[in-house]
Amino acid sequence: MSQQIGDFVTASSELLALGEPTHQEPAFGWVRNELFVQLVELGFRSIGLETDRVAALAVNDFVQNGIGDLDTVMREGFSHDFGALDTNRQLIAWMRQYNRNHTPAAHLTFYGIDAQTENTSAPSPRRYLEYARDYVGLDIDIASVAGHDEQWSRQEAILDPEMSMGESKAAGRLRSIADDLFDALYECAPQRIEATSRTEWHRAETHLTAGIGLLRYHKVAAQRHEQSERISLLLGARDVIMAQNLLAIRRIESRRGPTLVFANNTHLQRNPSHFSRAAGDITWTGAGSIAGSLLGEQYSFIAGSLGRSDVCGLREPEPDTSEAFLDNRISTWGLTASSAIAAARSRTDTTPQQGYFPLDAATLDGSDAVLHISDGAAIRPESIRTPRG
């Protein structure tokens, strides 16, 4: 067991994926902050979180250049309510302080890796396509084609194929416009980068790919399947967007240093993602499975594991589970090589409301290490090394 993440970083690792087994236990965010400080000391220069990539551009503007204020970027720069988490607020404040005290070449960069989607909603692609249109300088009336944003963003548009915009004439026309914008964005890259900057070009590309991803997501929502298959397809479409974002981030960051990415295990693990609900068995290919296949040894995955949690109402694990094996060796939190974890069964004492995904043999086999927190209540800001710039 170790609390030094450097013990698990290989020379070939360019994208280090750190998973959490549930979003509800804040201890994982506090430990992540400590581990990111360690990784920065080892040459990492960027971090990506499970939040909307376009919205996160405003967070990075603050981190890099002090644009805006912390309250605003936490409120507007995160999706899925993740801006309300104290763990994320401390991370962003520390990254801004670090950049103040270092030269631009050593600056840290913040990314979102997700889209602004859930199983019950997704926004209109209009404003994302319009941003790219304006950057390229084309005269296309996208708003009249897309129509009212609400007809895309309402829950019925995702939950009911009959109400979906994904196979509408508007969607087909927008996909054609997006293809033209994609070609135009690359064709004009030399001139636009010279007139603006490479950063601004990437900003336009980020908006455009987000719009294309949303069009693809809405198209999936228009397909007629039984509920479990629909959820599987929507989760798969979302993770394809995540994987493409991860690969794009690595292209941007390749010469600056490795990247830490933090998200739920199901998004980052190498094996297929799965859970069972009343609707049936849900299975999909996660972003980590896609990115790991394409990046090979450049991709590393550390699975998150939890013993007990007052926040989640998670009790001590049964004695013959992987979590119990780790509990017996780790008093607070620590990292352990996956190969050192004895074979055990998956715990069955969890409920869907806890949002906890137990360790299983397939996830362990596809991971390089495990971050185990024995008791979430034992991890507080004061128990973690205070990040300093």
What do these coordinates show?
There is one protein chain. By secondary structure, the chain is of the alpha/beta class. It is built from 16 helices and 9 strands. The protein has helices at about 25-40, 55-65, 70-75, 85-100, 125-135, 140-145, 150-155, 155-160, 170-185, 190-195, 200-220, 225-255, 265-270, 285-295, 320-325, 360-365, and strands spanning about 15-20, 45-50, 110-115, 260-265, 275, 280-285, 300-310, 335, 370-375. A 7-stranded mixed beta sheet has the order 3-2-4-1-7-9-8, with helices on both faces. A hairpin with a 2-residue loop joins strand 5 and strand 6 (about 280-285). Helix 9 runs antiparallel to helix 11. The radius of gyration is 21 Å and the shape is globular.
- Mean pLDDT over the residues: 94
Order the strands across the largest sheet as they lie in space: 3-2-4-1-7-9-8
Global outline: globular
CA-based gyration radius: 21 Å
Question: How many H/I helical runs?
Answer: 16
In whole angstroms, how far apart are the ends? Answer: 27 Å
